[in-house]
Design goal:
This protein is mainly beta and 644 residues long. Helices cover 11% and strands 39% of the residues.
């Protein structure tokens, strides 16, 4: 072979090798169709050693066999006993380093619970349920307890809540001492408290706003139980399945493990109703109206004294059911045209001892929208109307006409498809000075003619702006509501325009009925029928273990039951100072599909399903976090694709 051909052949070989090398470099990672690394990081070295005793080291180093990441450390990593000064946690290559800032306690087991926060750098395989434990004393405490925290009002899982133990069994411990052992709930509301010494404990939940591990703020969500917690353990057997692939079982072995108990604790969490009364705010959004807003209800209304006007018979007062919101509508234009109202207001106020005492404030209330601005806006509307009128006249579209009238705003709630279970409501934007019932006509259609029928109209006793019209509604019948113009005149002179609305009551064939048998229900129980948004649409008391609900429109519904111990018709929260739990809530664990003309009878055993599993996932807002797509799950997907 001549020298020229030899060089050419040798050069071609080098190019071929370089191409292979370049291709390999460009294909770093898993070749197409190959398997991903499923192995989570492995601990190869720690300082101190795992389960070390007599350790005084506040710096903990954990080294792994590969590069790692720490995901959501603030949410997932919990140190027990709880640390008043947050520990420093950082990742450096293949190491996790934790430095405890608090002084170490003597003869104490420390647990750093990482949950599934540690993952490998490439594939994201989590080192699940990982905790590091050491002791400053001669022994390691190994007991643990677990359970679930639910929102007491709606059985939603409570995520991110601290759950802690006290060996001090005094009720005052929760409000004066930090937790002794602690854990945090995950997206399912689940928790596990580790490193517990044998003994008897009280357990509490706390949404710790100020991070001091003590219930000292009334706005913090809490949970507690009167039952004592006595941690125990026993050896138990469980099956361990080994798979050949994603579809085929290889073997099922029985393996021994330590079963820690109790592992089914359920805590119902709630926020206490505020008890401290104070004025939240006052405002005067419009010249003729000012308002007071209070933090909690009271049995009496405030008293008002005018400093630059005479307050006697000066107002129409409108208030909420429990007097925590009060509106004052000023009658006299000379008063409400004042730029600033100077007043003294006296009301009940909670003092530093927690007692209701009289308090008087002096206020100056300036209208946010003053009279001059309102007048200017009205003049501008009139000017705009005149310009529009001139344009139309030039085009020959219209002759002379009257200026626009600002009618009193009236909202009549009477939908054309009318439900048997409802009535007509009429709402006004301001209190009324004239209400002419003779100008209101309710008619029923008989054949082709309209006939007047009797009705009753009732004013909301706390306001002069809301009315309800009652009548004997009959299925499939048509009704017409006619309200003559000038029927209503507002406090400030505006009058109503003519109103006419036609309604047809639904047929009985369009409804379904639900009959519930709830033999274990409390005598105070109330059932709520819920829509897909977990919002009540109907309510019925349980009488002798039964609740009958008629005239439900077809659709999918859910059921909630609460024990109405105080008989006020609404769910009530608890109060720790009185050791009073929130009123108990239960959910029927499945949706109910109701169709027209159906009468559904359903048995409901409140205890058939554990309370933490009762709420249907369809209406659960706090959904469990999606399982991380690990290398193992991706490999299983590939195997399924190959087997198709």
């Amino acid at each position: 072979m001549d020298r020229k051909r030899l060089i050419k052949k040798w050069t071609g070989g080098i190019v071929f090798v370089l191409l292979i090398v370049l291709y390999s470099c460009a294909s770093i990672g898993t070749p197409d169709g190959g398997m991903y690394d499923e192995t989570p990081p492995k601990v190869i070295k720690t300082s101190p050693a795992p389960y070390a005793v007599n350790s005084k080291n506040k710096k903990i180093s954990i080294e792994f066999d590969e590069y790692i990441k720490l995901e959501k450390a603030n949410e997932k990593v919990v140190v027990s006993p709880p640390q008043l000064e947050a520990p420093e946690i950082k990742v450096s290559g293949k190491k996790v380093e934790v430095e405890l800032m608090d002084t170490l306690k003597a003869n104490t087991t420390y647990t750093i619970d990482f949950s599934d926060a540690i993952v490998d750098n490439n594939e994201g395989n989590p080192l699940g349920d990982f905790a590091f434990t050491f002791s400053t004393g001669e022994a390691i405490d190994t007991l643990q307890v677990s359970g679930t925290v639910l929102d007491a009002s709606n059985l939603e899982p409570v995520k991110g809540m601290l759950v802690g133990l006290y060996s001090n069994l005094a009720d005052s411990a929760f409000v004066t001492l930090p937790f002794e052992r602690v854990a945090r709930t995950d997206s399912k509301g689940r928790f596990t408290i580790r490193g517990i010494a044998p003994g008897t404990y009280h357990i509490y939940g706390l949404m710790d706003i100020n991070q001091n591990f003590i219930f000292d703020q009334k706005t913090e969500m809490i949970a507690f139980t009167d039952e004592m917690i006595v941690p125990t353990s026993e050896l138990a057997i469980k099956p361990d399945t080994i798979w050949k692939d994603t579809l085929t079982i290889d073997t099922v072995k029985q393996v021994q493990y330590t079963h820690f108990m109790p592992d089914n604790i359920v805590l119902r969490a709630f926020k206490e109703a505020p008890v401290t009364r104070y004025m939240v705010k006052n405002e005067r959004l419009l010249p003729p109206k000012f308002s007071f807003y209070f933090s909690v209800p009271a049995d009496t209304l405030p008293t008002v004294e005018g400093l630059n006007f005479d307050e006697r018979n000066a107002f129409i007062i409108e208030h909420s059911l429990h007097n925590d919101t009060v509106h004052y509508w000023i009658k006299d234009s000379l008063v409400y045209n004042l730029d600033t109202l100077a007043i003294k207001v006296s009301y009940l106020f909670t003092d530093t001892l927690g007692k209701l005492v009289p308090r008087t404030d002096t206020l100056e209330l300036a209208a946010k929208t003053n009279r001059a601005k309102l007048k200017k806006e009205a003049e501008q509307k009139l000017e705009d109307w005149k310009k529009e009128l001139k344009k139309k006249k030039r085009k020959g579209e219209m002759n002379d006409t009257l200026p626009p009238v600002e009618f009193l705003k009236v909202k009549v709630d009477a939908p054309s498809a009318f439900d048997l279970t409802r009535n007509v409501t009429i709402d006004f934007e301001e209190p009324l000075s004239v209400f002419d019932t003779a100008a209101i006509h309710l008619m029923q259609k008989v054949d082709t003619l309209w006939h007047d029928i009797p009705y009753e109209i009732e004013k909301n006793e706390r306001t002069n702006r809301n009315y309800t019209l009652y009548a004997e509604w009959r299925p499939e019948q048509e009704y017409k509501l006619v309200i003559d113009s000038l029927a209503f005149t507002g406090l400030y002179g505006a009058f109503s325009d003519k109103i006419e609305q036609t309604m047809k009551v639904r047929s009985l064939d369009e409804y379904s009925a639900l009959f519930l048998n709830i033999p274990k229900a409390d005598s105070s129980a109330v059932v709520e029928v819920l829509n897909a948004q977990d919002v009540p649409v109907r309510q019925a008391k349980v009488v002798n273990g039964r609740a009958d609900i008629y005239f439900l429109q077809p659709g999918k519904y859910y059921l909630r039951l609460f024990n109405d111990h105080n008989g006020n018709g609404v769910w009530d929260t608890g109060l720790y100072a009185d050791k009073r739990q929130a009123e108990e809530v239960y959910y029927y664990p499945q949706p109910l599909e109701l169709k027209a003309m159906w009468e559904v009878e359903q048995d409901w055993n409140l205890d058939a399903v554990p309370v933490e599993k009762q709420k249907p996932i369809d209406i659960t807002k706090q959904k469990p976090e999606a399982e991380k797509k690990t290398a193992k799950s991706r490999n299983e997907e590939r195997m399924r694709e190959k087997n198709r």
